[in-house]
Every structure is written in structure tokens, then in C-alpha cells.
């Protein structure tokens, strides 16, 4: 039986040994040099803060990459959560003294209820639920946990014993299948 090597951390060498590798890994995923530098720096800082959690089962580089992957995922989560909060301007009036832009969140909303719209929304929900039920079991479970119930990526990965990248592949495939199902069963009616 072979002995398992216990790895140690040497943060004094991290920049010389891993900065270029981590930067190249990051730039390929975020396509922004400044953001890549920030993420690598955050990775080193997080590594320093969590040194006590290092068990020595993985190499230093592997351990730092796992931290970096989480930083990249967090970066994209932040971008996606801020997307809807961006200030969007819309033309509202284009005549005389009322001319100007409105911030999207201040645009007057439709106050009326529409019975036809409510029925259509209910039918759409039923069609979507039927399509979700047609997904392969693993896709359905992951999609429901992430999209409908809002579970955290790490919690889903731990619960289902999958990697974050596998989770995002499953989510993508589930959405693709749902789109196809909705196109076939709802939009062609």
C-alpha cells in the first residue's frame, strides 16, 4: 500500500510559483486582465485567511485553483445579480418641455388587470411545469434546486456530489431542453 503524500503550504513562494499560472487560468475565463489580476490577488488573500483549513491532501497549486474557481464563480454571480439593477434609460416624452429620459424603475407601470393575460400566464406556467417534469431526473433536480428554489451552488454540489462546472453544464442543458419543449408545446399553439 502506498503512502499518501502530505502537502504543505508555503505562502512566501505563491507569487513566484503560481501567479502567472493562476492569471492565465483566470484570463481565459473572465477575458479582462484587470479583473483577472484582482481575482488572483483575492485568491492569495483567501488562501492566507484559510490556511488553517488546508489538510495537505492536495498540492498547493490545486488548492489555490479550487479557491480561484470559487472566486470566478462569485464574480459571475455578482455580474448576473447586478445586471437587473443597472440603470436603464427609456425615452418617455419627445415633445417640448416634457422631453427627456426616464429611469426604467420610474416608468409608469400598467395598473389594469387583464383576465386574458392572467389565463395565459396560468397556461404558460402549466406548460412550463410539464416541460420541467419531462427533463431527465438529474437535470430536473438540479434545475429546480438552483433556479426555482434558489439553493447555493456549493450546497447543490455537496448534496448531489457534482462539481460546480458540472452543475452549470447541467443547468445549461436543462434550459436548452426546456426552451425546445416550450417552443414545441407552447409557442406553436
Automatic annotation (TrEMBL):
It holds the Pfam family Sigma70_r2. The keyword Transmembrane does not apply. GO terms for molecular function: DNA binding; sigma factor activity. Keywords: DNA-binding, Sigma factor, Transcription, Transcription regulation. It comes from the Bacteria. Residues 15-78 form the RNA polymerase sigma-70 region domain. The keyword Metal-binding does not apply. Residues 126-178 form the RNA polymerase sigma factor 70 region 4 type domain. Transmembrane segments: none annotated. GO terms for biological process: DNA-templated transcription initiation. Belongs to the sigma-70 factor family. ECF subfamily. This is RNA polymerase subunit sigma-70. It comes from Wenyingzhuangia fucanilytica.
Amino acid at each position: 500500500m502506498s503512502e499518501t503524500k502530505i502537502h504543505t503550504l508555503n505562502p512566501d513562494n505563491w507569487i513566484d510559483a503560481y501567479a502567472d499560472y493562476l492569471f492565465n487560468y483566470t484570463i481565459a475565463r473572465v477575458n479582462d486582465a484587470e479583473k483577472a489580476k484582482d481575482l488572483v490577488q483575492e485568491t492569495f488573500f483567501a488562501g492566507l485567511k484559510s490556511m488553517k483549513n488546508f489538510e495537505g491532501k492536495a498540492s498547493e497549486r490545486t488548492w489555490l485553483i479550487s479557491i480561484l474557481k470559487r472566486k470566478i464563480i462569485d464574480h459571475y454571480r455578482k455580474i448576473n445579480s447586478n445586471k437587473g439593477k443597472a440603470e436603464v434609460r427609456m425615452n418617455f416624452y419627445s415633445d417640448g418641455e416634457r422631453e427627456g429620459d426616464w429611469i426604467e424603475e420610474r416608468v409608469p407601470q400598467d395598473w389594469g388587470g387583464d383576465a386574458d393575460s392572467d389565463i395565459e400566464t396560468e397556461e404558460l406556467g402549466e406548460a412550463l411545469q410539464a416541460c420541467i417534469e419531462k427533463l431527465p431526473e438529474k437535470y430536473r433536480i438540479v434545475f429546480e434546486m438552483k433556479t426555482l428554489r434558489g439553493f447555493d451552488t456549493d450546497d447543490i454540489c455537496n448534496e448531489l456530489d457534482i462539481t460546480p462546472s458540472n452543475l452549470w453544464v447541467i443547468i445549461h442543458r436543462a434550459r436548452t431542453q426546456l426552451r425546445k419543449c416550450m417552443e414545441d408545446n407552447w409557442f406553436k399553439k
